[in-house]
Amino acid sequence: MHTSLEQPRDILWRLVKDIKFSMFTTRHGNGHLHARPMTTQNKLIDEQNLLWFFMSKKDDTIADLRSDASVNITYADPGKDAYISVSGEATVVDDLAKKTALWTAFAKAWFPGGPEDPDLALVQVKIIHAHYWDVKSSKIVQLYEMAKAAITGKAPEIINQSGEVRM
Asked: 120-143, pLDDT tens digit by residue?
């Protein structure tokens, strides 16, 4: 729940932390943008504003990151009307202790060798900029406002919280 004392960085993490899957977008060598579903591994955001992901070393994502470290990660929770876009710089990190600290039973489905699996790449994304939208109006109010807007031609008055975070 939003409080007036909540800082944009805290709002961002509150919205991100419970969304299981994101779309992780890189620029491929041919210039095209490629997005794929990924799970954010950390359950807290630290003072360095890092997001952590497990990826396959054989995947095109790692090759994409080596040629262009700029990424975009999007999160969506339509049930809560929460949407987030994160821009950052990604780095492949070789840190067994960090892999072990972030390890979950869910990750074992992809990397049966555990944190020491030779195919497991650990990717950190340093958040540079994020934008979030957190709609506070109920679904009934949203539908009413959209119907009213369709009839009157005036934009709907949906209560939402939108913000930007620069790290």
From this structure: 999 999 999 999 887 654 444 444
